[in-house]
Every structure is written in C-alpha cells, then in structure tokens.
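for the recovery benchmark. tokens below, seq after
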C-alpha cells in the first residue's frame, strides 16, 4: 500500500523533490542566463485565450531593483528571502485587452501557471524557489507603481537552497483533494 507522504512512482523527480527553503546561500548568484531561462519557462505557461496576463519585477542582490523591494518584506520573510539570489515580484493584469471585459477571472490562475513553470525550471537548474505573500502589499504597490489594471499578487525568492527539506513532508492525501470541496467544514 502507498504511504501518503511518499510520492507515487511515476511522478517526475523535479516535482517530488521540490520544496520551499527557508535558507538560501547568499553567495550563490542567479546569473543572466539562469534568469533568462526562468523567464522563458514562465513565458511558455498556458493562459486563458493566450492572454499571458503576467509580469515580473526582478531584483538581484546589488541591483537597485533589489533595494526597492527589501524594505517591504515582512519580518517573517526578510531573514531568509534577503539571501536569495533573486527576488521576483509577480503581477497580473486583471483586465482583458481588446474586449469589453473589465475583469478576467482567470488572470490570477494564469499567473500561478507561469510561476509554477518558473518554479519547476528553477528546480531543473539546481535552484530552489519559495513563493510567499509575507510583504507589505500596499507599500510595495506604491513603490513600484504598476500601470492601471496591473496588481501585485505574490513574491518568489529563487536561489541555491542552504537547507534541505524536512524528513517528513506533510501533504494532504489525494482522497482529501478530491473530497475537500464537499466535506463538512473542519
């Protein structure tokens, strides 16, 4: 019988070994080639109507963009996110171009697809990605001042992990994934 904490045989090792580190090696650099590959992976993500409603604000240590993001990290994320070789602010465009629609109910989902592609690409390159929302959204929005229709959704720290996944990695069971929307509130 399959133990719910072990990935099934057949799941791709990149997915099975993926984890969100809480420590990054501050000496590890995400160079231009690596950054380009991460963005290329995001670029090829699927989206509703091929709208590709995502954008990224990128900052690496030593670059002015990195300095613009750091002051808005929450006390819970600053200790580990600061050491990542790359901080990515994720944005989505919630209006739909060339239509009368004022809001796309798929934009956030599509952004999630792009970030998932970026995360798997990072893993394939020996990097780790930690997605998070522990930052001052209002302050960062004022600082970056995205164009109308664009909103900041999350951030991703990318770099060389300086820790390992815990031995016990808790995941909900497949049965729970299938029943959760119909189960009584827990």
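predicted aa per position
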């Amino acid at each position: 019988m399959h133990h719910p904490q072990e990935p099934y045989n057949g799941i791709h090792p990149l997915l099975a070994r993926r984890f969100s580190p809480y420590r990054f090696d501050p000496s590890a650099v995400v160079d231009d080639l690596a950054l380009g590959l991460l963005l290329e992976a995001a670029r090829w993500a699927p989206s509703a109507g091929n709208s590709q409603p995502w954008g990224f604000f990128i900052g690496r240590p030593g670059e002015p963009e990195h300095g613009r993001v750091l002051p808005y990290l929450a006390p819970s994320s600053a200790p580990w996110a600061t050491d990542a070789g790359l901080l990515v602010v994720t944005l989505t465009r919630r209006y739909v171009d060339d239509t009368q629609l004022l809001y796309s109910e798929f934009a956030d989902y599509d952004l999630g697809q792009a970030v998932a592609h970026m995360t798997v690409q990072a893993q394939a390159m020996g990097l780790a990605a930690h997605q998070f929302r522990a930052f001052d959204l209002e302050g960062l929005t004022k600082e970056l001042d995205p164009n109308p229709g664009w909103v900041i959704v999350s951030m991703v720290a990318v770099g060389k992990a300086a820790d390992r996944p815990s031995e016990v990695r808790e995941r909900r069971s497949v049965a729970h994934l299938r029943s959760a929307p119909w189960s009584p509130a827990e």
